[in-house]
């Protein structure tokens, strides 16, 4: 009987959510329409009552608004699935049996641009017999990681699927978990991660070069510097106490030096770091971070471009190789079903492999000893 009641409530919700919008009598903007006077973030908050946008906008039109967290239609998701995914993302009810497997499959790639497969290894070894008589003096002393190679494992896209977030939070290891800036029950979900010894960071939605399903509060190249600053600060204000951020998607925005400069200036004011996910080889983030004088690092490996356990374990082998070669390695994964299964198997083996898992903030401080982070 309880299952039938839940199914009835879900069906009622989905029916209401797909009804045609109506216009308010006191505004010419329909809540499914676009108002060019609003920033993308303000427009989203105007359109969606179920996402906590804080106080980022002075726009206060009192109109009923539907739940809808997917704001770009790529043609890959039909209206029924769109409604279900919106429901999951806004309410976290993907832990119930009513959510179908195809919704879980789409959650694997929700708001994610195609990620590069490159393994970044900045420790280039020059092998040239003609250079054997040269004495090379490094520009600065390389960071010292101790006798045990260090690994940083970052799990992006946390906080949307409560089931998948809970799976990662159940791993009692010093992971670094990057929560997206929207969704429901974020504080409780983040508290669960903290109890497992995990470190929280903000996963900041940024514009991609390709057409993808975009996050609701994505920072875009169409925004003015003032909009970038205001909307970014609104995101940060929802995550008090975090020490840094990384980019979610962002292959287009991270190439925009003007807007990256604004983001780095805000981070400078708050004593925070930037971790470049390196979704674009042309990212200007490092340049902007250096100009602002903030701590910076970048990822080396993406773990789960394929949601396949054997593939992910091979990527973790690459992480191990880099860490033992260079003293440390930074990897990024996502709360996918097979990532969780691979980590459950791999994490208990780290000590036997001669590796130490550390929070990203510790690696950032080692890489950037000249900068002080808050906390």
Separation of termini?
Answer: 50 Å
| CATH architecture tag of the largest domain | Alpha-Beta Barrel
Oligomer: single chain
CATH class of the largest domain: Alpha Beta
- In CATH, the homologous superfamily of the largest domain goes by the name Glycoside hydrolase/deacetylase
Radius of gyration: 22 Å
Q: Estimate the global geometry from the Cα principal axes.
A: globular
Described by strand count, sense and barrel closure, the largest sheet is:
9 strands, parallel
| Uncertain residue ranges | 1-41, 50-73
CATH-defined topology of the largest domain: TIM Barrel
Order of helices and strands: HHHHEHEHEHEHEHEEHEHEH
Instruction: Quickly count the helices.
Output: 12
Secondary-structure-derived class: alpha/beta
Helix content: 25-40%
Q: What is the mean pLDDT?
A: 78
The tally of strands reads 9
- Beta-strand percent range: 5-15%
Can you put this structure into words, describing what you see?
The chain is of the alpha/beta class. The protein has 2 domains: 2-19 and 30-107, no CATH class; 129-367, TIM Barrel (Alpha-Beta Barrel), CATH 3.20.20. It is 35% helix and 12% strand. It has 12 helices and 9 strands. Strands 1, 2, 3, 4, 5, 6, 7, 8 and 9 form a 9-stranded parallel sheet that branches. The longest helix is centred in the C-terminal third of the chain and has 18 residues, at 309-326. It is globular. Mean pLDDT is 78; it is low at 1-41 and 50-73.
């Amino acid at each position: 009987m309880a299952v039938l009641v839940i199914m009835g409530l879900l069906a009622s919700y989905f029916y209401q959510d797909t009804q045609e919008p109506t216009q308010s009598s006191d505004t010419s903007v329909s809540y499914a329409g676009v108002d060019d006077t609003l920033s993308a973030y303000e427009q989203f908050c105007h359109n969606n009552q179920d996402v906590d946008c804080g106080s980022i906008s002075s726009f206060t039109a009192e109109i009923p608004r539907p739940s809808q967290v997917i704001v770009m239609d790529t043609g890959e998701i039909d209206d029924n699935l769109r409604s279900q995914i919106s429901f999951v993302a806004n309410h976290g009810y993907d832990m119930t049996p009513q959510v179908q497997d195809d919704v879980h499959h789409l959650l694997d790639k929700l708001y994610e641009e195609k990620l590069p497969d490159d393994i970044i290894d900045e420790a280039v070894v020059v092998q040239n017999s003609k250079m054997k008589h040269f004495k090379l003096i490094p520009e600065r002393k390389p960071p010292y990681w101790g006798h045990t190679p260090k690994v940083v494992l970052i799990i992006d896209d946390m906080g949307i699927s409560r089931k998948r977030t809970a799976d990662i939070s159940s791993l009692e290891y010093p992971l670094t978990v990057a929560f997206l800036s929207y969704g429901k029950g974020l504080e409780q979900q983040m508290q669960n991660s903290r109890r497992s010894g995990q470190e929280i960071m903000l996963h900041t939605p940024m514009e991609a070069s390709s057409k993808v399903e975009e996050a609701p509060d994505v920072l875009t190249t169409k925004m003015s510097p003032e909009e970038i600053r205001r909307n970014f600060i609104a995101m940060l204000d929802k995550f008090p106490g975090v020490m840094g951020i990384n980019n979610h998607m962002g292959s287009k925005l991270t190439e925009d030096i003007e807007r990256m400069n604004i983001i780095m200036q805000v981070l400078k004011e708050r004593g925070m770091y930037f971790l470049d996910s390196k979704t674009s080889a042309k990212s200007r983030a490092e340049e902007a971070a250096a100009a602002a004088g903030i701590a910076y690092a970048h990822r080396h490996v993406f773990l789960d471009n394929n949601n396949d356990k054997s593939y992910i374990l091979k990527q973790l082998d690459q992480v191990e190789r880099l860490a033992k070669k260079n003293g440390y390695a930074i990897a990024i994964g996502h709360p996918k079903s097979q990532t969780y299964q691979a980590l459950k198997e791999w994490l208990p083996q780290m000590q036997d492999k001669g590796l130490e898992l550390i929070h990203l903030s510790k690696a950032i401080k080692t890489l950037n000893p000249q900068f002080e982070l808050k906390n």
